[in-house]
Amino acid sequence: MRYRLLRNTISPLGYRSIRVPASPSASRLLSSSTRKSPTSKSSKALKAAPTIPFFGAFFSSNRNTEEKTTVMSYPDQRSEDQWRAVLNPEQFRILREKGTERAGTGEYDTHYPTKGVYNCAGCDAPLYTADHKFKSGCGWPAYFDSIPGAVTRHVDNTFGMKRTEIVCTNCGGHLGHVFEGEGYKTPTDERHCVNSVSLRFSEDAAPKAKA
Ligand SMILES: [Zn+2]
C-alpha cells in the first residue's frame, strides 16, 4: 500500500530520484509522511522498491550512467546515515535531498559582509567569497561567481523546468540553481541562487585578495 502511494506521489520527481543513487526523494517523502519516526528499516524498504528502474525507463541508459558517475565522483563520499549524523534536519533536507528554503527566510539572504568566505555547510569546502555576493532581490543569497572549481553544475529537469542545479564539488551537497543572462550588472550576469542553509559563513577564512 505504501509502495503504491509513494510511486504515485513521487512521479513528478522521478528524475530526481534517478540522479542520486541513494534515492533521497523517497526518503524525503517518507520523512514528510512519517516525520516523527523515519526508521532505517522502512527507509531500506523504500530503497528496495523498484521505483528507480521504473522511472529509469523514461531516460536513456547513457544519461543515467553519466549522472550516476558524476554523483559518485565527489571526493567526500559520506553515506546518507553519516550525513544525517552531522547535519540538522533542515540541512539534510536541502543539501542531501535537494530541498529549497522559503524565499526571504535565509540567514544570508540580506547578508553583505565586506570580507569572508561562504563554506559548504556539509563539508566545509570554501564555495563563495564575500566579493561574489550581490543584491539580487530574489529572496535567496546570490553570487555572480564561485571560487574556481568549488561548484559543479548539473542539468535539472524537475518540475517541468530546465534549470541548472549547482552542487558542492567536494561533497555533492545541493546548493541551489544558477541562472544566466538576467541583466544583472555584475561581471558575469550569472546568479548563483543558493540556499542559506547550504552555507556557513566564516569571516576569518582568507578571502580572495580585494582590489
Ligand atoms: Zn560540500
Automatic annotation (TrEMBL):
Enzymatic reactions: L-methionyl-[protein] + [thioredoxin]-disulfide + H2O = L-methionyl-(R)-S-oxide-[protein] + [thioredoxin]-dithiol
The protein's name: Peptide-methionine (R)-S-oxide reductase
EC number of the protein: 1.8.4.12
Swiss-Prot/TrEMBL GO biological process terms: protein repair; response to oxidative stress
Cross-referenced PANTHER family: PEPTIDE METHIONINE SULFOXIDE REDUCTASE 2
Renumbered residue ranges of the record's region Disordered: 26-45
Homology family: Belongs to the MsrB Met sulfoxide reductase family.
Pfam families in UniProt: SelR
Domain MsrB stretches: 80-204
Top EC group: oxidoreductase
Needed cofactors: Zn(2+)
Gene3D superfamilies registered for this protein in UniProt: Peptide methionine sulfoxide reductase
Residue stretches in coiled coil: none
Organism: Penicillium antarcticum
Ranges of biased composition (kind: Low complexity): 26-43
Annotated keywords: Metal-binding, Oxidoreductase, Zinc
Gene Ontology molecular function: metal ion binding; peptide-methionine (R)-S-oxide reductase activity
Co-factor remark: Binds 1 zinc ion per subunit.
